[in-house]
Write a structure and sequence with these properties.
alpha/beta, two-stranded antiparallel ribbon, 9% strand
């Protein structure tokens, strides 16, 4: 049971204002800045509604409760160590800094003086000319220097921050985006006011709402363990639950030495620097765990990790500790980044990884992650090829329940992590791949409404046709170079519309590829009006797969039989493009 020293009402000005204990985000227990435009927009909308109510003088609108913050306030610690509330306090500081900058840019004596006061009272100040800067909110090592350089180190002479440091992490870009977003919103509001006097009044009202109207409940705890428990309880009940943050806090809590804390921080730096988006880190953490232990759902991932690792970390003698787990995590993160971006350096393997990404076949990543731990990428070519055939035949074309495929793939990943050879996984996968008869039957009936998957299937068929017909001219098939074309249009003229339109428009037999950007007007024309674009196409999937069979010239109408005939032709080609298990059996 967590010990809570007290839960105190605090305004924003009392939390980050001058003459109050400095709020510090500790390096060993917090994440980087993570609010996207969506969260910032919601925050701004709430502030605007609150300001309107507060300006009206309604007593019920005098305060706006923005939520709890959790701090560690041991008697031996100067200031407050912030465990939960970083996103709200950081965003509030960015908004205050935006108000400061706009006031200064007005160039009036009152505006510039108010800007100086805002900086000294709520952002940062020097107590003496040669004294170091005192920051009222100190972020963790991930964002500290960038936040100071772009938000806090403001000059009362120039009215600007130095902004020397570039955005090296996704969180840095989010800080820049939040500032730009607030700047745009405030300047747009100010356009409604005719003179500087009324603009100053509006800005001062906004500042006053933030400083004295935003109210938090500060939950003070004596130790990091108590704070972690409160933090988990709060986050487990809200929509902002972050498994990545909870796991990091748990690892810090279980660290028995400074060395282990350093290893955790090193691992988290790798995660933050190795992935462009936070969602990728969340996905990696699940796939890492799945690759070792089998399937676990995202909603129960943290609970599962904590329970399992606590059993290891609390065992005496300890055989597997925080440092070892962090090292595994860091090593796996590097491989995972190479796998999801197709940047292993091996062209054939990277091409296969590109296919996985195009199909959004994320279920295959844990298998490749576990297999790559003790094998070089070229050694895994057969494994990735077999896995792709399995995924295409089972999921993309067969439209079967993905749960069984995931169960199989995740189980194979776990076996490899347990010491089995990737060859063992290959033998299992080839046994799961639907046979040729089943695949052809599925393909003949398949509809593919997702353009990315249709482009992938048709692109691979195009490649096979070129090999068959010994055509060596290179055609780029990547996104933006070709588009998926519905031969029978998505929006045909009324007189040409098929009776069961929706059943045929996305059938594979009705889809082809054309170069360049899609022209929707041309795409919706009847066949005679666009036949030349197919016959003259450099893409064989358009010029040599009996596209003309879809049109009945004698009766001036579309033929559903033509769609079926062409789809049967494509199915024969597809059988060899994504082979059955006999290829590897």
């Amino acid at each position: 049971m967590a010990i809570i020293k007290q839960a105190a009402r605090q305004t924003l000005g009392q939390l980050i204002g001058a003459n109050n204990p400095i709020v510090t985000v500790p390096d060993d227990s917090q994440r980087q800045y993570a609010w996207t435009r969506k969260e910032v927009d919601v925050y701004w909308t709430d502030i605007q509604k609150f300001k309107t109510g507060r300006d009206s003088g309604k007593e019920s609108s005098s305060e706006y409760f923005i939520g709890p913050v959790v701090t560690i306030t041991a008697d031996s610690i100067q200031g407050r160590s912030l465990l939960d509330g970083q996103q709200r306090l950081t965003t509030s500081t960015i908004l205050i800094a935006t108000i400061r900058d706009i006031l200064w840019q007005m160039k009036s004596p009152e505006g510039m003086s108010t800007a100086n006061n805002i900086q000294r009272d709520y952002i940062a100040r020097k107590s003496g000319r040669k004294e170091p800067m005192e920051y009222f909110l100190v972020l963790s090592l991930f964002d500290r220097d960038f936040f100071r350089d772009h938000i806090q180190d403001w000059s009362e002479i120039t009215g600007e921050c130095p902004k020397i440091e570039g955005a090296a992490r996704p969180s840095h870009k989010l800080i820049q985006d939040a500032y730009a977003n607030f700047y745009s919103k405030i300047t747009a509001n100010l356009q409604a006011y005719p003179d500087d006097e009324s603009r100053l009044d509006w800005l001062d009202s906004l500042r006053e709402c933030l400083i004295n109207g935003l109210v938090f409940v500060e939950i003070q705890t004596p130790t990091s363990s108590d704070a972690n428990e409160v933090f988990e309880t709060i986050n487990s009940r809200g929509k902002d639950l972050s498994t990545v943050d909870l796991v990091r806090n748990f690892l810090m809590e279980k660290s028995t030495s400074n060395y282990e804390k350093i290893r955790v921080n090193d691992a988290w730096r790798s995660l933050l620097d190795g992935f462009e988006r936070r969602e990728e880190i969340e996905k990696f953490l699940r796939h890492f765990w799945v690759s070792k232990h089998g399937d676990v759902k995202s909603h129960s991932l943290y609970t599962t990790i904590r329970k399992d690792l606590s059993g290891h970390f609390d065992r005496r003698p300890q055989l597997y500790g925080v440092g070892a787990f962090s090292a595994e995590l860091e090593a796996a993160a590097g491989r995972y980044a190479e796998i999801i971006t197709g940047s292993t350096g091996n062209p054939e393997f990277d091409a296969a990884l590109g296919e996985i990404k195009t199909m959004s076949a994320d279920a295959l990543y844990p298998l490749l992650l576990s297999a790559s731990e003790n094998s070089e990428y070229p050694q895994l070519q057969t494994l990735v090829d077999a896995a792709i055939s399995y995924y295409v035949r089972w999921t993309v074309v067969g439209r079967r329940e993905s749960t069984l495929l995931e169960e199989n793939i995740f189980g194979a990943a776990k076996e490899i992590s347990g010491g089995a050879s990737p060859d063992v996984a290959v033998r299992k996968i080839v046994g799961w791949i639907p046979d040729d008869e089943t695949f052809e039957s599925d393909f003949r009936e398949a509809s593919i409404p997702k353009p990315s998957q249709a482009r992938y299937l048709l692109g691979k068929i195009e490649h096979s046709l070129r090999i068959r017909e010994d055509v060596h001219e290179e055609v780029m098939l990547g996104d933006g170079k070709v588009h998926v074309e519905n031969i029978y249009p998505q929006k045909p003229k009324a007189e040409f519309r098929l009776e069961d339109h929706d059943s045929w428009v996305s059938r594979l037999g009705n889809l082809t590829l054309l170069t360049g950007k899609k022209n929707q007007v041309l795409s919706n024309l009847s066949y005679p009006e666009k036949a030349s674009s197919y016959a003259g196409s450099a893409l064989l999937v358009s010029s040599r797969t009996e596209v003309e069979a879809l049109w009945d010239g004698a009766h001036t109408r579309w033929r559903v039989q033509g769609i079926e005939e062409r789809q049967a032709l494509l199915a024969e080609i597809a059988r060899d493009v994504w082979p059955s298990g006999n290829r590897w059996g």
